[in-house]
Amino acid sequence: MGTRQNKLLGRTPLSWAADRGHEAVVKLLVEKGAKLESKDVRFSRTPLSWAAERGHEAVVKLLVDKGAELESKDKYRDQAPLSWAAENGHEAVVNLLVEKGANRSLKMRALVERRYRGLQRGKRGYEVVAKLLAEKGAEQESKDKIL
């Protein structure tokens, strides 16, 4: 079974399956030897990063349980999977990653500033995620590369 990167975006089948939330496909690819830490060419993101951003809790759990690196950061925005999940308001994924040992010293200020409209309106779970991270000890004054 091919696990090589495609030429257009430099993403592996595992990356695409994780991004789309296809748990059964992710499981099969991992069992067949797909590399958990394969990074796409364009953004240097892992399958765990894509699954966390999209809020695919079952896929995130599967990848973490199989040994995916919790702190792997992309080159585009210097974000780990926890930061991607938090930025997109995925409370269950944030909680799972924190419980599995993800570093909570993510860029909380950047999360709030980048998503301030969502936080102010209480949309898409941003308020809940921000509160959860604050309770778990996230650094509230750190900055990301973009700000």
UniProtKB/TrEMBL annotation:
Any Pfam family from its record, for instance, is Ank_2
Q: Which GO terms describe its biological process?
A: protein K6-linked ubiquitination
Q: Which SUPFAM superfamilies match?
A: Ankyrin repeat
Q: Coiled coil located at which positions?
A: none
Keywords, ordered alphabetically: ANK repeat, Repeat
Molecular function, one GO term: ubiquitin-protein transferase activity
ANK repeat extents: 9-41, 43-75, 77-109
Q: Does the keyword Repeat apply?
A: yes
Please, which domain of life does this record's source organism belong to? Eukaryota
Say yes or no: keyword Magnesium present.
Answer: no
PANTHER family listed in its UniProt record: ANKYRIN REPEAT DOMAIN-CONTAINING PROTEIN 39-RELATED, BRCA1-ASSOCIATED RING DOMAIN PROTEIN 1
Listed name of the protein = Ankyrin
